[in-house]
């Protein structure tokens, strides 16, 4: 009997996992909440990747694509998110079409008949994946589950592990990596914009903001030092990541980006209707 592996998410990891599953003689069931493959990646299509094509394409996926007469990109080039979708994920998704199920929101993952009291045979009992979508509710069985949903749609909140009062639903409080030099330029340009975070998404956004005329970016960093965030510079194992860190250091040291360290939490967001500002009342630790 062919074993079934449920794969949650049809992004780079999920689709590559499906290719591996098929090579091992098993059947994938790919459940994606979006209407297309690469649903999350499409939200940051403007962002250049740190990894070149050589590091971004899994061997099993490449073997599958070669059978479909796919033209591989230059292995040393660095794709944007949009190029990753167009040149890799969409062609790969087409080869996996029989096993793809779109617009399926995961409600629960459990083992059939297993609960807090009855757990006999837990390790061998099949999984049950409950989903809902435009066509209603559905339940699928599987012998194994791979979670490739990622974190894009589960961003860190502004507070200490939870949203702060005024955060949820606020029209000027966003998450992810907005296209500040494109679609979001009118909204962000010429303003004072705070970015909370210590990762590369925050750094890339801050550098882009610093290049907008009249814009004053503020880096709200929870850590007491930015050494780790800046990476290894010229010695970084990922060259593009090192360039980002070097550019960030230059912008901060040159005053183009104002740095606030040890911002351990935000307590409240407050609107200032007179000039459209958002007040951010927080706490600085240390």
Structure in words:
- There is one protein chain.
- Helix 6 crosses helix 8.
- This protein has two domains: 4-147, FAD/NAD(P)-binding domain; 185-280, FAD/NAD(P)-binding domain, CATH 3.50.50.
- Mean pLDDT is 88; it is low at 272-276 and 279-286.
- It has 286 residues and is of the alpha/beta class.
- The protein is built from eight helices and twelve strands.
- Helix 1 links the parallel strand 1 (4-8) and strand 2.
Keyword list:
alpha/beta, FAD/NAD(P)-binding domain, 2 domains, 4-stranded parallel beta sheet, 26% helix
Q: Which topology of the largest domain does CATH recognise?
A: FAD/NAD(P)-binding domain
Number of helix segments? Answer: 8
What is the mean predicted local confidence, pLDDT? 88
Strand content: 15-25%
The total number of structural domains is 2
- Write down how many β-strands occur, each being a DSSP E stretch of 2 or more residues: 12
Instruction: State the oligomer.
Output: single chain
How is the main sheet built? 4 strands, parallel
Shape: globular
The assigned CATH architecture of the largest domain is 3-Layer(bba) Sandwich
């Amino acid at each position: 009997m062919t074993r079934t592996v449920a794969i949650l998410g049809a992004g780079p990891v999920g689709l590559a996992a499906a290719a591996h599953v098929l090579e091992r003689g098993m059947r994938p069931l790919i459940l994606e909440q979006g209407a297309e493959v690469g649903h999350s990646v499409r939200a940051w299509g403007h962002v250049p990747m740190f990894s070149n094509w050589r590091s971004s394409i899994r061997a099993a996926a490449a073997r599958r694509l070669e059978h479909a007469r796919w033209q591989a990109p230059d292995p040393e080039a660095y794709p944007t998110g949009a190029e990753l979708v167009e040149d890799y994920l969409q062609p790969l998704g087409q080869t996996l079409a029989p096993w793809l199920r779109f617009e399926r929101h995961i409600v629960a993952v459990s083992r059939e008949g297993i609960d807090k009291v009855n757990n006999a045979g837990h390790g061998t009992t099949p999984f049950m994946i409950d989903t809902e979508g435009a066509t209603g509710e559905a339940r699928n069985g599987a012998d194994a589950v791979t979670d490739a949903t990622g974190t894009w749609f589960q961003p860190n909140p502004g507070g200490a592990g939870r949203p702060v009062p005024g955060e949820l639903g606020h029209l000027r409080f966003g998450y992810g990596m907005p296209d500040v030099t494109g679609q979001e330029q009118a909204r962000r340009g010429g303003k004072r914009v705070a970015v909370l975070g210590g990762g590369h998404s925050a750094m890339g956004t801050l550098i882009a903001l610093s290049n907008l005329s009249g814009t004053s970016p503020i880096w709200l960093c929870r850590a007491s030092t930015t050494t780790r965030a800046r990476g290894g510079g010229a010695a970084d194992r990922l060259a593009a990541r090192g360039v980002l860190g070097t550019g960030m250091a230059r912008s901060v040291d040159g005053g183009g980006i104002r740095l606030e360290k040890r911002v351990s939490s935000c307590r409240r967001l407050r609107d200032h209707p007179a000039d459209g500002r958002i007040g951010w009342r927080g706490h600085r630790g240390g």
